[in-house]
Each structure stands twice: as structure tokens, then as C-alpha cells.
Amino acid sequence: MGRLAVIGVGVMGEALLAGARRAGFDDVVVADAAPGRAEQVAQQYDATAAPTAEAVEGADLVLLAVKPQYLPEAVQQIAPGLSAGAVVVSVAAGVTTATLEDGLGPNVAVVRAMPNTPALIGEGVTAISAGSRAGDSALEVAEKLLAGAGEVVTVPESLQDAVTAISGSGPAYLFYLAEAMVDAGVGLGVPRPTATQLVAQTLRGAAGLLAQDDAHPTLLRERVTSPGGTTAAAIAALDAGAVRADVAAAMRAAARRSQELSGQ
Ligand SMILES: NC(=O)C1=CN([C@@H]2O[C@H](COP(=O)(O)OP(=O)(O)OC[C@H]3O[C@@H](n4cnc5c(N)ncnc54)[C@H](OP(=O)(O)O)[C@@H]3O)[C@@H](O)[C@H]2O)C=CC1
Ligand SMILES: O=C(O)[C@@H]1CCC=N1
Fold first, then answer.
1. How far apart are CA 161 and CA 97, in angstroms?
2. Of the ligands numbered here, which is closest to the C-alpha atom of 113?
3. pLDDT band at 241, cuts 50/70/90?
4. How far is ligand 1, taken at its centre, from the CA of residue 170, in Å?
5. Has the ipTM of the complex gone over 0.95?
6. C-alpha 142 to ligand 1 mean position (Å)
7. Counting ligands in written order, which one lies closest to the CA of residue 68?
8. Which segments of the chain belong to CATH 1.10.3730.10?
9. Coil, helix or strand at residue 4
10. pTM (whole model) above 0.90
11. Which residues contact 236 (CB under 8 A, 6 or more apart)?
12. Residue-wise pLDDT tens digits, 169-188
């Protein structure tokens, strides 16, 4: 599988590193700007720690997982040490393959990816898009890396801002909903640990139903909604609060922000 370098082992870098180890990558070098962080992660995942510029030397595959604002600096640091023919996978929201190709030079293939945090438990989903110099073999190697973190789909790069709004930021919307449901449950008199357990397993079970092949969210919701019952009362309250429109507005804001990040 060759050597993998992970640049930036924060929340997402660590989640994808965990997936890479599950996928069988066993020669891994990690780098991070926070003092001591690379060493700590290297110990935990049986990897080697190195400064950013050196970490990419001899690597066949490089995963860039720093915040978009810090990416130009990281690109500058790694560009001179990259091996010809290396594949660089970036998960930075909003940063285009064209920008990365400009900074990294003509000898590497760039793949843009948008993962999400359930990658930590192998239940993520990542959308990948090929840069202009990334052929099928580069996409394949990126897919192998990311498959350890969950499902992988290939999309045209023009859809990456939308994907970011759906699945990249998506877990946060569900945690927000979970918080609101737990708090409301507590308000209705249920102890917080019990309310949390009820909400977590309800989300897990509902996601399982939704993941079935023939699932349609409308049908699934209708099956819960008995005539004149409790769910009908709840959905009427959600509609009165224009929650559906709010979700659409939130996702448009996320996609817009992803676009803005590409201009920074
Ligand atoms: N979190 C998420 O749900 C998702 C995040 N992403 C993308 O993943 C990327 C990382 O996000 P996230 O993990 O949340 O951020 P974090 O801040 O948790 O992690 C980024 C890490 O990179 C380090 N770093 C910064 N500059 C360098 C450098 N030059 N060399 C090595 N390490 C460096 C940071 O150190 P320090 O703290 O000292 O700056 C930090 O530890 C972002 O681009 C984001 O858009 C994509 C999908 C989902
Ligand atoms: O909030 C962010 O910018 C990153 C990208 C998608 C999820 N987290």
C-alpha cells in the first residue's frame, strides 16, 4: 500500500488515520502543528511522528487535514519534499483541486475529499473528486484510504460545496437535534441519562431504517404517524415553526460558506 503521510491530526485527521489503519495502511507518518500532538497520535496508532516538511518525504499518499485557513502554509511546507507521482488527498472544506495543484506543482495527483466525523467509528461517508492530474489509479488509492472510514462516493468537483452542506456538516445538524430532543425530554420530566439513551437509540434505529434499500423518508415518517395521534401533533408543531425551511436555509448557508472558503 506504500507509505501514508497524514498532515494535521486534529479531529478529522485522526478519524481518517483510524480508518486508514483499519484499511491496512501500516507505514504511516504523522505531522501536526500543535506541540506534542503528532507524537501522541503516533503512539496511539503505531505511526511515526515527523515535522510537516519531512513527513511527506518518501510518501506515496499524503492526506492533508488542516483547516482551510492554514492550508496555504502547509502546502508550502510539503511541496518541496513530495515524491513525483504521489497522490495528495485534501479534506479541506472549500479548497479546490486547482488551488492545490497550483501550490503543489505538476508532479503530484490531487484528490479533493469531503468526509464526516462518523469516520471515527468507521461509519462515515466521504465524497471524492479528481483533480486534473488524478486518473483512475489516484482515485482508487484515495478510495482505499477513505474506505476504512466508511462509504465513499465519487462526485464532480462542482458538487463538493453541496456535499459539504449535506454530509460534511450534517452530523452537527443531527447532534443539534439530539440536544434539543434530550433537553425537551428533560423538560417533560425524564432523567437526562434516560432521555439521552432514548434519543441516541432512536437516531440509530431511524438511521438503520433509512439505510434500507427501499426506504423513503416520507413513507417512514408516515408509518410513525397514527391518525389523530401524537406524531401528527408534533409534525404540525414543526411545520408551524417552519423547520423544513430553516433546514434548507441552514444548508444553503453551509454551501455558501464552503464557496467563500475557496476564495480565501
Ligand atoms: N471536523 C469535521 O467534521 C470535518 C472537517 N473537515 C476538514 O478537515 C480539516 C481539518 O479540520 P478539523 O480536523 O476539524 O481541524 P482541527 O483543528 O481539529 O485539526 C487540524 C490540525 O492541523 C494542525 N495543523 C495546522 N497547520 C498545520 C501544518 N502546517 N502542518 C501540520 N499540522 C497543521 C492543527 O494544529 P493547531 O491546532 O496547532 O493549528 C490541528 O491540530 C479542515 O480543512 C476541515 O475543513 C472536513 C470534513 C468534516
Ligand atoms: O465546519 C467545517 O468547516 C468543517 C467542514 C465540514 C464539517 N466541518
1. 13
2. 1
3. very high
4. 18
5. yes
6. 19
7. 1
8. 170-262
9. strand
10. yes
11. none
12. 999 999 999 999 999 999 99
